[in-house]
Amino acid sequence: MLRIFHKTTLTVAFIVLGLASFAFTGGLNKSIEFTGGTQVQLSFPQAVDAARIRGALEKGGVAGAEIQQFGSPTEFVVRAQDVGLVAQQGTSGSGVADRVRAALAREFGAGAFRVSGSAAVSPRVGEELTRNAIIAMLLVSLATLAYLAFRFEWRFGVAAVIATLHDILVTMAFIKLMHLEVSLTVVAAILTLLGYSMNDTIIIFDRVRENLKTAGRASLRDVLNKSINDTLPRSIMTHATTLAASLALLIFAGEVIRPFSWVMVFGIFVATFSSIYVAGPVLLWIEQRFPRTATAAPRSSAARARSEEGAAMRAARADAR
Questions:
Q1: What is the per-residue pLDDT across 132-167, written as a single tens digit (0 to 9) for each?
Q2: Cα dist. 45→72, 111, 114, 251, 272 in Å?
Q3: Domains contained in the chain, CATH given
Q4: I want to staple 145 with a disulfide (CB 3.0 to 4.6 A). Which of 9, 97, 111, 157 is the partner?
Q5: Which residues have CB under 8 Å from 86's CB, separation 6+?
């Protein structure tokens, strides 16, 4: 099975495309939770052109605001993330929200719209959330490396962390190319996928460890192939169930949860791919570059000899009966 995606050109090309998008179009589309700013939800009695709303805000001094249709054609979200406005709002976004209301009232009339809700995040809070999100991802990777190095050996830990890094890069490229807004829910989706992918990798590596005990003279490549095939039915059932739940969220949950659902649906395929076609080949490469010490071979041979001797004795007892 490892030869199916022997040359992972598709995933490499996807990562390169995402990095190129970063280079030419800028960074991620961050929500006000990370950039700081004010968000105002508006509801109109009838459909309104978003360009008209944008023009009214610019006349009222709220330049560069993002206007997004939310749910129905009569509902909109206004995000004021301009650097000047963010600096002016300080710890409270009431001034910016009031400016949005006043600008729209002059254009449409005071009773022509309704403010469903508003939220504001200061620049300091946005920087803190960004830092905490990065720290959370690093801690997940370090914890996995430490666990696998303790439970198995360091080769397995390094392979799992590299596979996790692959998942992060591919998911970030997907978020950028889809122009998804990076909010706390999207960060939660990324962390969920990291845990999901690592769990799948650990299950495969655990089966590798078990099969190595009875592998005899079989190569690590053959043991890895056998282990992947042993765990494949479990993986198919688990991934299919998770995918069905994620698709249900994507179709029926609405706009707020849709970025989370997109990341989960895409991430399930990425996690499956990396657990089989990234972690496994990386483990093989590490084994080739840093083979096990010679002192481990006699112990393995002795263990195999004891196992074979025990099997022969059990067979002799069965024949005697």
A1: 878 877 887 788 777 777 777 788 888 888 888 888
A2: 11, 10, 9, 26, 46
A3: 9-23+126-290 (1.20.1640.10), 37-121 (3.30.70.3400)
A4: 157
A5: 35, 36, 37, 80, 122, 123
